[in-house]
Design brief:
alpha/beta; four-stranded mixed β-sheet; 17% strand; globular
């Protein structure tokens, strides 16, 4: 099983957060290029979906899911990703989870919202919790 990087409980919901940092200064250029290809091709979507589902299964099996909505956010520290590419990745993640659930299967609706951000879009959306590389 693969898990998300962070699970954060806040008053209104539970946030499951996955962080990827292909722009890290110590990253090899070839690794960064391969990661960008993985993002743009949609191959990363499968991994991100699995991480959320495995984390949800773990929380559910351990009885640790509070009666709060669950949200899944992915932060990809990659400045070359455009707003359009982030939107496509968000839409694909919503489709794969699925966000709205599968009709007739109550168990399948297990995420209220999800989104994919880069540093710029995260800081615009959440100015009260800014992220920066140190």
């Amino acid at each position: 099983m693969k898990a998300v990087d962070f699970i954060v409980e806040i008053p209104s919901h539970i946030l499951l957060l996955e962080i990827k940092d292909p722009d890290h200064p110590r990253s090899q250029e070839k690794d960064r290029i391969n990661f960008i290809k993985k993002i743009k091709s949609g191959a990363l979507d499968v991994e991100l979906t699995q991480k959320y589902r495995d984390s949800w299964i773990y929380l559910k099996a351990s009885g640790d899911i509070p009666k709060k909505p669950l949200r899944y956010f992915v932060l990809i520290a990659c400045e070359s990703l455009t707003p359009a590419e982030l939107t496509v990745r968000t839409d694909e993640l919503k489709r794969k989870l699925p966000l709205k659930g599968i009709k007739g299967q109550d168990w399948s609706w297990f995420v209220e919202d999800c989104a994919v951000f880069n540093l710029r879009s995260w800081n615009r959306k959440f100015p009260q919790i800014p992220v920066e590389r140190i």
